[in-house]
Amino acid sequence: MAFVVTDNCIACKYTDCVSVCPADAFHEGPNFLAINPVDCIDCDLCVPECPANAIFQEDELPAGQEQFKELNAELSEMWPKITEVIKPLPNADSVNGTPNKIDQLIVE
Ligand code: SF4
Ligand code: F3S
């Protein structure tokens, strides 16, 4: 079992989550973080840290967020680990809560 970063992280990327992860399971892309499901130890520590409430257990994903399970697995293999908190993206507070940011996800 692993936790999954979902839509509301996109374009926010607060990164508070990485400060508590004992497994260094987070990977950083341009405007989203992904959890490596192999590394995640299912500890739940990151969930309350996220100002965007974007992290859920894989079997408790909200409706419409199911695709993020596979996305986290794929993107975490592509992107480097992140273990230090960095500044959120510039418009994080204004787009926090905007639904369906998946169209803005930058995959590179
Ligand atoms: Fe890291 Fe625990 Fe969150 Fe998994 S549930 S990503 S191990 S803090
Ligand atoms: Fe994203 Fe929340 Fe972490 S917005 S970077 S999952 S603190």
What can you see in these coordinates?
The protein has helices at residues 67-78, 92-95, and strands spanning 3-5, 26-28, 33-35, 55-57. It is mostly loops. The protein has a single domain (3-90), classed as 2-Layer Sandwich (Alpha-Beta Plaits). The strands form two sheets. Strands 1-4 form a two-stranded antiparallel ribbon. It has a two-stranded antiparallel sheet with strand order 2-3. The radius of gyration is 12 Å and the shape is globular. The chain binds iron/sulfur cluster (SF4) and FE3-S4 cluster. FE3-S4 cluster is lined by residues 5, 9, 12-17, 33, 49-50, 52, 54-55. Iron/sulfur cluster (SF4) binds at residues 3, 20-21, 23, 25, 35, 40-46.
Task: Let me know the number of strands.
Answer: 4
* Order of the strands making up the biggest sheet: 1-4
The SS-based structural class is little secondary structure
Radius of gyration: 12 Å
CATH topology: the name is Alpha-Beta Plaits
Describe the global form.
globular
> Please, what is the average pLDDT?
98
Tell me the CATH architecture.
Answer: 2-Layer Sandwich
Gap between N and C termini: 27 Å
The H/E string reads EEEEHH
CATH class descriptor name: Alpha Beta
Strand fraction equals 5-15%
Tell me the quaternary state. single chain
Helix content: 10-25%
Ligands present = iron/sulfur cluster, FE3-S4 cluster
